Every structure is written in structure tokens, then in C-alpha cells.
């Protein structure tokens, strides 16, 4: 051990061998990390964040190599360390948590067997001592009944539980450095908040340093002390969290922050500003600034002639930026649309009307284990989406959001109730039984565009096939029809000749939207269409959906767990819990008191990318009822922080109507207003 940083990376250069030649993906990165400190590494996909993390533990694979520079950890040089030395450090002094917990968990081994491996392998402790440590670690990551969890297999745990198991595996040997690569991507907002709170708590208890990689800037604010912003393998800005998020100096950092919706504004107040273009290939590096091709402030010659070194910001010794114009750019401020706010038009006629919708999944018969109870995925749901407006459906995984979408699209049929699409009852009609005109009226955009695009065929084939099937005849000029749809979603017609694997995530999602537009639908159902995308791509897709809706007058049913996006995009919001609608109303009413207690907890859990945001965290504890259970009273009663007594357990909650806003809760609305405070307006930050 030395008196310097725990981790000291200096002029690190990383190269990958590709078919087109060797690509220097990281041309030179330098940063330090002290014991007990948390550094956030942010940037778009392809910027080199994960590559840097993997280089620290020398997991670059056969195609990657460290081309130069130094990585010193606890005073030891890792770039030249032999395999025996690396094995002594990996898993014991340096641990890693990946985005997908199943990448770390063996599906055929119990959790207990996997947890005891690390201390037995790295420290030589006995099996009984390792088990005792594993049980203590499970309790430390706040998993109920550690003894039972030890005997379970990974598939028997929820996503949040799996991620807690992986964190427990990483910390069980007391590492000095914990590398977390997108550890909360894909988790529900409440689970994400709980995991982030857990990371902060364990960090203070174990004094482990954390390298936290994420494209969720709100998560970085909640966890980290400092932030390093990467672009094309280079650090373009580095400094304390508050300085970076309140006074960013590099145009790229500003661009990332301008892509983010806030809980206090919507599409009519503060339009999102995506960064133009996309991350360029590392095969051909420019002589000057790597961001010059996308920068609105570029000055030819000055910015493009030579490499831009990182320099200390005047008056801010802990803040560095690699931009020659950093001191010349206008002062940055968080976008606010308060002055531009205006009310939307009236609700209009309903395009989609759902009445008393119930969907029950009958279990398959299991001869050896006896009968199972049916699963009521959706119970007595009532919703409506007006023509040309956006209905958002939010809630945790398993609440019934996607089931509603599947019934709307005909992928599932309703067990009871009605679903009316433009005056036609479709709830009992599977998609194959729907007439061509009905199929054209409603199209779906899925979370994963790979579910829509056939990897064996080109993008043009997928869109052209949709044109033929939805129009009932071959277009006069198929290529022209495909090109027109690609231009609508702002893609080059030349991409029609490419297969999905040759497109970026954002391009694939745009192509999936183009396929959905082939029938000129009146209703677009978008199921988590931006959840796994970078903030800039996310902003571009959300803007695209808004533009398409405005141009075509289409109704949008938008399903998401990202409440900031919902606040920005939606006109009406339905909050679902355990197959029921807990709250429904105009977005500005649902995001202001009185809230349903579940809505209140969801809003409090949203990671806000503002270090000055003041908001209380409401933790949801208690047991979530199984999907095959039918609670006698309020389905949220087992977790509700405002539970009033046995009436919540025994009696279904009444639906309270406040104009066009309704809440299913035993607590009167005026009492909820007194108990609750606004959670969506960040405190003003002086610039």
C-alpha cells in the first residue's frame, strides 16, 4: 500500500483487433480513485466506459490488448502482472458487478454454493465459516430469510434479488475496489432506488472504493462523489458531482444533460435536445477534438487541428475539461419551460376505451405437484386513450402493464370486459382473427427491437413485408415505400440494405417504429421502447414519437417505468399495481398531491440528475402478494407506508373521484393532500 490513490490510471491506451484493422478505442485515459471514494464514469454506448473497467481486471479477451500506459492498484502495476498475481487480486481485492446479474450467477447452482466459493477459494476458510459469512452478507444486503435464499436457484429470485445476490458475492471478501457496470439498468424504479441506497450504505460500511459506470445520470448523482465524462475513449470532463451537474463546461456534458427530461416539465414546456449524430468509429480518429463532428460550438482549425489536452478550469482546481472553448461558452443552466407552459386541448373522443378488463392465465396441469391457482394478471381495469393524445401506463414489473398492451394488440384475448378500438370491440379477438383494417389501426413497438426485426433479413425486407401485409397488396414501388418510412423516422434510405446487426440500438428502434408505421396506424402501443437506450438516443426516439403523433394525429399508449419520460410525454397517466389501476388522471394531476401512496413511493424513488434536488425517500417494505393470490382488501396494503389499519386488509379501497382524477384508496383525498408534499419540482439551482 502507498500514500497515493488506491487506483491510479495513467495514459491508458487500449486497442482491439477488428476485420478492418487494429482500432485504438481508448487513446489515452488518466484518472485516480482514492480509498472509500466513488467515481462515476458516464457517456454514450461505445465511448469506452466498460472497456476501461475490463482493462483494470485484464478481461479484454483475445481481440483486446493494453497498448500502453499504466494501471496501478494498491501500489502494484496491473498491466504487467502475471496470471497468478491477477488471480490473487480478482474477486478478493477487486470485485465486479455486471449489468445482467445472470452473467455472474450459475443457473444450475444454488445461491449458497455460489456465495461460499469466493471466501473458500480466495481465503481458504472452511465451508462452515464461509456459510456463516454468506448468511451475514445476505442479511447485510437486506434479503429476507437468508437461510431460504441460500437454498434457492437464481431463476427463483426476482431481478432485484438477483442483483443483491451479485453485490453480496462481490463484497463477501471485503474488496478494496468495487467496479459496477450499469448495475441498475432494466430494474424497476423502486428496485433501482433500493439497490442504489444499498450501494451507498455498504460503501460507507466497508470503505470500498467504487467505479460506477452508468448512462443513468440520476443514479450517478445518488451514488458518486466525482464524475468523469467519456467520449470516444477520452475523458472530456472530470470533477465533483455538483460542479459537473450544475456548471458543466464541455459541450458533450451539456448535451447529455440537455437530453434528460425532468419531473417538472413536459413536451409543451421544455423540448428535449438530443445530441446530433452518433458516436463515430474509432478506426479513423480526427486530429483534433473527438467530439468536433457533433459539436454546435466547433471552431474549425482551433478545435480540429491538434489534440485537445485536459486542463484545470480557472478557479476550480478539482474540475478539469478538454475543450479549448470551455471559458468562452455561455453559462449553462438547466432547461425550464415554466414561461412556455400552456394547457393542452380538450380530451377529445376516445380512440381506445377499456372497461372492466380482466385477464386470467389458467395454469398448466401438474400431475405430480397438484393443481395451481389461476393467475389474475389484470383485474377490472378501466382506461381510455383519446384521439391524438398519449396515455401512459406505469408501475413495477408484474403490475399488468404489458398484459394490457398484449390484449390491446391481440397478442392475448380478454377473459372478461371490453376493449373498444375506434368503436369496434376487439378484446375477444386475437390478432389473427382481426380484419386487415383493424390490424392497420393499431401497431406495437416493443422494448427490444430485435423482437421485431428478423436478423436473417435486411431492414428493408422487414419494412417492405409490413407494407405488403398491412396494405393487403404489394405497393406500386416497394423500395420507394420503404425509403419514405425510413425518412419519416429520420434514417437514411441506404440503411434498407443492412441487416439489424449492422445498426446501432437507436437505429434498430427507429427501424422498428418505421415498420409499425407501415399501416399508417391510428394507435401506436409502445412497450418500454427507450428503457435500454442512451440518454441522447432516448431523447431522439421520444421526440420522434412526439413528432409522428403531431403529424399523423395518432394515439400513443406508452408503457414505461421511467416516470421522468412519462411526465414529459404523457397527457393521461394510469398507475397500475398488481393488475389493478391505483390512480388515473391527467399527468399534471397525477404528479401532484394528492397521490395514491404507491404513486408517491414511485415518484420519491426516481433518481433525479440534480445534486440540489430535495426530496424525501419513501421505502417500500413488506411482502408483495403472489400473482395467484387475490387480496381481500387493497392490493398495496402489505407494502403501504400509509396503511391505516385492518380496513386496508379486509375491504377493497373505494375509488375517489376528483374531477377527471381518480384514486383507489381508503384515505380521503383531503387527508392525503395534508400528509403529502410535492415530489416532482426540483429546487431551483443558482447558476
How would you describe this structure in keywords?
8-stranded mixed sheet; 29% helix; Rossmann fold; globular; 687 residues; disordered C terminus; 21 helices; alpha/beta
Q: Can you offer a commentary on this structure?
A:
With 687 residues, the chain is of the alpha/beta class. Among the domains are: 350-530 and 545-560, Rossmann fold; 592-675, no CATH class. The protein has 21 helices and 24 strands. The strands form four sheets. An eight-stranded mixed sheet has the order 6-7-8-3-9-10-12-11, sandwiched between helices. It has an eight-stranded mixed sheet with strand order 18-19-20-15-21-22-24-23, with helices on both faces. Strands 2-1-4-5 form a four-stranded antiparallel sheet, covered by helices on one side. The longest helix has 18 residues, at 189-206. The two termini are 41 Å apart. The relative contact order is 0.09. Residues 337-346 and 682-687 have low confidence and may be disordered.
